[in-house]
Design a protein that fits this description.
The complex is a heterotrimer. Chain B is mainly alpha-helical. Chain B has eleven helices and no strands. Classes of the chains: A mainly alpha, B mainly alpha, C alpha/beta.
């Protein structure tokens, strides 16, 4: 059982199932509570980022300026960022700005954070979408084949291959692809994906291929194993057996019963995997020098560009929270049992 | 009225399920391969410095020379001996990964067990804090902390352990909750067994196998993240030898002198894959054992 | 001409080639209901599914034929078999909750069942589905077709499965313990429907069960299986009144009955498992009549009456003996000193109150039965007595002394005096601890006796329950269900309790194993003056073991009194319904007075 699978049952528990005959009527629909929970989580995430970047380092100004620090510059910086005020006040200001869309000014470049963030975010989303749109159908297909031809040579092959790729660190996968396709054996694709950030990733498709492929190889194994396990569960279930004993054709059973029921854990697992994808993106963008959000975060971090770091990290976390929320909603849609007891 | 005759199906050897699982796991080829791979790399990382004949930071020649009799794997981007750096470069990765994993697993286990035992809403705030940590990809959190506070080894270990905790806690929480539903836990409660004793004596033995599998998964992750951190530049700092760092440093010479990059890459990969294979072998053995047991 | 002919059916494990079912031969006529009876391991479920050409994973049909209206199911190709399933022969499973797809509405389930075998052109679905529902007794429920399985009750789900089984008007229907887990009233209604459907549609029906009483009322003919073979078959009345096989007789003697207090006679020994079956008669080791010939040769089928045969060398002699059922005198309780008194107990969970102000008292050496269906609150009441409930009010007295309701506030002697035995042999023992450790556990709470004393007490408890010290180092998965229940009792006995609360402790056991547990319990009562609160839904058991009985409905006591009086002349309507719906073996009985 992978931790993704176990996390699923956790998640199912946390979606409150209305207790039959419970005297306390659920006035607040569960999805409102779920969204509220998501918002709360986002707030907590923002506090964490704030703490890590502005409070913990002690003197944030000194960390930012580093060796450039002279007493005058420190003062200017502190005034500009409001670092002299009590932490709580700083946080409230900061979060209020964020909520209203003011992400502040980059300390290093002479532009607003928003200007820097948006195009890079678009690139990353393009990359992520490419990866997901390839990985998801491919993995579901391979996982299903594995499950249907359980323990056969195809299943063993897929299982060992996906296990190997699962274990490899993403940068290894990325480098491997560079070696094979860019520098070594076949020089088809560019080894680095440098293009001006103002251009969108789609206008440079060649630059997308290797990074996207790396991500596909990195996340597919998870989804394959998840699909395989949940489809096997469904195929081994009692209701599939009794459907067979009723003479229902095997293909119908597979599509209508088994796949439908196994999609629920897959939806959930995919949401968890997307968090992993976000981390993988940072590394892959670094390997390929892809002008995306991950690369931005790393640049911001190396330049100690505080507002940029905060905005980027918060954005990444927000995406994760939203994706998980959508996954929860989708799961309940797919599971009649969780929709509540009938009238 | 004993039923000695009928019990011929159950061998009378007293054995713990763990030893049965382990023995079954060892029968699987993947477990053995995994042990070999990871064992080799761990051995190399631990004992490497003992076999090293020189200073890994010493310049022995021009940069990016291919393998020679003197330098078996050639030189790196500065002209240092790749082989020497390789022998010294695993220890940090090893101790940091192991520590982060063990710390994360132990704390996650404790939190998961307590919250799984006491039920849903009690440890709500703690679980919610975990959700917050989970909202970050592990590596992003590490980068954020390390960037502001410096690439201190203990900080990296703590942050990586921190990211493991909620994931382990989730698993142990659901396992504990399942376990607590069983009647033998109720039996322990009817004689007012103290909570701690129930958790340690009754619940914990049932968690050992899934926990072992999870530990191998966590270890593979730790290796992955810490090597990646060094690769990005937020781990071990130059000029110290470290496999992740070496991969990044020598990247530009990939075409000219591939060994300087490939050698550390292969070692990191072998460690991660080896550990995963062992975990997978245990997981398969455990599910096989469970099937037999529930006859 | 029989509609269904099963001939020479043999099913074996694929890996070891050990037989699961050997040489099964029987027939079922049109409109006839044949009961197939046996305990776990007898192979009855294997026969049931083999009739549809299916075996569970790891087993395969070695030889034999299942001929329905001239068509041999076992000789069909995969495609033809799929077509035959549901159309020629269909199956009603044991657990309807697991058998229905949780993501599909009832309407879709039914439509799918029909579409599998009939063309759908121009079908008036409304009429068709309405007809199906009416047949299965579900026509009075609004909006049923749009509901999901989890929204239905257990009985309704089972009726849906029955509707699907009859959807394509098959020639033969196999029902595999379809009323397990349903309460007795629902069961009786479903049995009525089943009987009606068999007659109306001229269906050949095979009804698999472990419950002799059910089958006596429902079936026309009866087949008894033991260790993979058919040991007796014949018209129901004949098999009951003139049983010709020692196992059938022994089985009947282990079955309690609600109409009379029977002497249960456990069968010594254990049934041989697959792969360990002896070369001669499998029952020989446990049979009072066994001779050398029985151990050497497998007995041939001996005809003892019209359509009645048994596989025993002594069948002819056996069938002329008197019925094995012995009636005992009713239990009467004389002692007025209560050992346990509960007053106005209100208990519940998750904010809901489930038990509304009930009181009860048990005397020293008395067995009080607490009877109720699922949802009556009997388990909640029991748990509040033992101190496991955190939502409880009321008063509890042990030997006249007030006892706190929470377990953690009770003194050690109070906790030891009141002990609990759980229901499920599967989950009542920690799979990771040895039997010795599980039994020893209560003694490890401070102040704890020395290791030597603990050892002695554990071994003594093991002896008392009929196991021995050799069971100490074993693990639960090495024991049978009955043995595990004994360990559960030993764990309670090691505290030397005065009152034992038994929560449905035999519900998950075979009837012969149940009889041995009951015998054990009665022995403990006699020897140690143990008082027992016996919780069950099985009225027949109540008649056998209890002095007094309390009937619980929806958290209220609706009736209480001495067992004989209450079961013979119930005053409350609910009790009357329960008794009426409980099947019973009506047979000439001998009394031992």
């Amino acid at each position: 059982m992978t931790s993704a699978e176990s996390g699923l049952s956790e998640r199912m528990d946390s979606i409150s199932i209305p207790v039959e005959g419970s005297p306390r009527r659920r006035v607040v629909p569960w999805w409102v509570r779920r969204i509220g929970g998501g918002i709360l989580t986002l707030f907590a995430v923002s506090i964490l980022i704030f703490l890590a970047t502005q409070v913990l380092p002690g003197d944030a100004a000194k960390s930012i300026l580093g060796r450039d620090a002279t007493p005058e510059k420190l003062e200017i910086l502190r005034a500009e960022l409001g670092l002299n005020r009590p932490a709580l006040e700083q946080y409230l200001d900061w979060s209020r700005n964020f909520v209203t869309g003011d992400f502040g000014m980059s300390l290093v470049n002479d532009r607003s954070v928003e200007e820097l963030l948006v195009p890079r975010a678009m690139n990353t989303i393009a990359l992520a979408l490419c990866a997901i749109l390839i990985a998801l159908p491919l993995s579901i297909l391979l996982g299903s084949i594995s499950a249907i031809r359980r323990d056969g040579p195809l299943d063993q092959g897929i299982s060992v291959t996906s296990l190997t790729f699962n274990a490899l660190p993403e940068f290894v996968i990325g480098l491997g692809l560079v070696v094979i396709f860019a520098t070594g054996v076949m020089k088809i694709f560019p080894a680095v994906s440098i293009f001006p950030p103002e251009e969108s990733a789609f206008s440079n498709p060649m630059a997308l291929v290797l990074p996207a492929l790396s991500l596909v190889l990195a996340i597919s194994p998870y989804i394959i194993r998840l699909v395989r396990a949940s489809l096997i569960d469904a195929l081994d279930s009692e209701y599939v057996l009794t459907a067979r004993l009723r003479g229902i054709p095997e293909r119908r059973i597979l599509v209508n019963h088994a796949l439908r029921n196994s999609m629920v854990p897959v939806v959930h697992g995919t949401a968890l995997i997307l968090a992993y994808l976000a981390g993988g993106i940072v590394v892959i963008e670094y390997v390929f020098r892809f002008p995306g959000l991950g690369g931005l975060l790393l640049e911001a971090v190396s330049a100690r560009d505080l507002p940029l770091i905060q905005a980027t990290a918060l954005f990444l976390a927000a995406v994760y929270v939203v994706v998980n929320l959508l996954a929860d909603l989708l799961v309940v849609r797919l599971t009649p049992r969780l929709r509540g007891v009938g009238a | 009225m004993t039923s000695a005759q009928a019990n011929s199906h159950a061998e009378q050897r007293p054995r713990s399920a763990w030893s049965v699982t382990w023995r079954t796991a060892l029968h699987q080829p993947r477990t053995r391969v995994g042990l070999a791979l990871s064992g080799f790399v761990v051995g190399l990382a631990l004992l490497g410095p003992l076999f090293s004949s020189g200073d890994p930071n010493e310049f022995i020649g021009a940069p990016f020379i291919g393998p020679t009799g003197q330098a078996l794997l050639g030189t790196d981007f500065l002209g240092q001996d790749v082989m020497q750096r390789l022998l010294h470069g695993g220890r940090t990765l090893l101790w940091m990964s192991l520590t982060a994993t063990i710390l994360g697993v132990l704390i996650g286990l404790a939190i998961g067990m307590i919250s799984g035992y006491t039920g849903r809403r009690v440890e709500g705030s703690l679980m919610w804090f975990m959700d917050v940590i989970l909202a970050f990809p592990q590596i992003v959190l590490a980068i954020v902390f390390v960037s502001m506070l410096g690439p201190l080894p203990w900080l990296i270990v703590l942050v990586v352990a921190l990211t493991h905790i909620p994931r382990v806690a989730r698993l142990t929480r659901s396992l504990t909750a399942d376990c607590v539903r069983q009647e033998y836990i109720e039996a322990a409660k009817t004689i007012a067994t103290p909570r701690s004793r129930i958790l340690i004596r009754e619940v914990l033995p049932n968690l050992t196998t899934p926990l072992a599998v999870e530990t191998t998964i966590r270890l593979a992750w730790s290796v992955s993240i810490i090597a990646a951190l060094s690769f990005i530049g937020y781990g071990v700092q130059p000029p110290f030898p470290d496999w992740g760092l070496m991969i990044n440093e020598n990247r530009i010479g990939l075409v000219v002198q591939p060994w300087s990059v490939l050698a550390p890459v292969v070692l990191v990969a072998m460690l991660a894959v080896g550990v995963s294979l062992v975990g997978d072998g245990i997981a398969r053995a455990a599910s096989g054992v469970d099937e037999r047991v529930s006859q | 001409m029989s509609r269904v002919v099963v001939s020479g059916l043999q099913v074996a494990l694929s890996s070891s080639k050990a037989d699961v079912v050997t040489d099964a031969n029987f027939t079922i006529g049109s409109g006839e209901i044949v009961g197939l009876v046996g305990e776990s391991g007898s192979g009855k479920t294997t026969v049931a599914t083999a009739m549809l050409g299916h075996t569970r994973k790891g087993a395969e049909i070695v030889k034999g034929s299942v001929t329905i209206d001239g068509l041999d199911i076992l000789s069909l190709s995969a495609g033809a078999l799929r077509s035959a399933r549901g159309r020629v022969i269909s199956y009603v499973p044991q657990d309807p909750a697991a058998a229905l797809d949780p993501c599909m509405t009832i309407g879709r389930h039914l439509r799918e069942a029909v579409k599998a075998h009939e063309s759908t052109a121009g079908v008036d679905w409304n009429a068709r589905l309405a007809e199906l529902l009416r047949d299965a007794g579900l026509d009075d429920i609004d909006g049923l077709l749009d509901r999901y399985p989890h929204e239905l009750s257990g009985g309704q789900r089972q009726r849906v499965c029955i509707a699907m089984a009859f959807a394509c008007k098959p020639a033969c229907v196999v029902l595999d313990e379809p009323t397990t887990g349903l309460d007795v009233t629902t069961q009786s209604h479903i049995l009525d429907s089943v009987r009606r459907l068999a007659r109306e549609h001229d269906v050949a029906m095979l009804y698999v069960t472990h419950d002799l009483a059910v089958v006596e009322d429902l079936a026309d003919r009866l087949i008894v299986m033991y260790a993979g073979r058919i040991v007796e078959q014949g018209p129901v009345r004949n098999v009951f009144h003139n049983s010709a096989h020692p196992y059938s007789r022994a089985l009947m003697a282990t079955t309690p009955d609600v109409r009379a207090r029977l002497q249960l006679q456990p069968i010594p020994g254990v049934a041989p498992l697959v792969g360990h079956r002896p070369s001669g008669c499998a029952f020989a080791d446990r049979c009072t009549q066994a001779a050398d010939r029985c151990r050497e040769e497998i007995p041939a089928q001996v005809t003892v009456g019209v359509g009645h045969e048994a596989a025993c060398w002594f069948a002819a002699d056996v069938s002329t003996e008197r019925s094995p059922l012995t009636v005992r005198s009713e239990l009467v309780f004389a002692n007025d000193v209560p050992i346990l008194e509960a007053e106005e107990i209100r208990a519940g969970y998750k904010g809901r109150e489930v038990v509304h102000g009930t009181s009860l008292s048990i005397g020293r050496g008395e067995c009080l039965a607490l009877v109720g269906e699922s949802g009556s609150g009997k388990s909640t009441l029991a748990r509040s007595l033992i101190g496991l409930s955190d939502q409880v009010t009321g008063r509890l007295r042990l030997n006249g002394e007030e006892v706190p309701l929470g377990i953690r506030e009770r003194s050690l002697s109070q906790r030891h005096a009141l002990q609990y035995v759980f229901q499920s042999p599967r989950s009542s023992l920690n799979p990771r601890r040895t039997i010795f450790e599980s039994i020893e556990a209560p003694l490890l709470i401070a102040p704890k006796p020395t290791a030597a004393v603990r050892r002695e007490r554990v071994f003594e408890a093991l002896e008392q329950v009929g196991l021995g010290p050799s069971f100490g180092p074993r693990f639960p998965d090495q024991l049978s269900g009955g043995e595990r229940q004994r360990v559960g009792i030993a764990r309670a006995l090691v505290c030397e309790p005065e009152v034992l609360i038994c929560d449905e402790i035999t519900s998950a056991l075979d009837v012969s194993v149940q009889a041995s547990i009951i015998e054990l319990l009665e022995g403990l009562q006699r020897e140690h003056g143990l008082s027992v609160l016996f919780i069950t839904h099985n009225l027949a058991l109540v008649r056998t073991i209890a002095h007094r009985v309390i009937v619980l409905k929806a958290g209220h006591v609706v009736e209480e009194g001495s067992t004989a009086e209450t079961l013979e002349h119930p005053s409350h309507e609910y009790t009357q319904t329960l008794i009426r719906d409980t099947p019973s073996i009506v047979a000439p009985l001998t009394s031992d007075s």
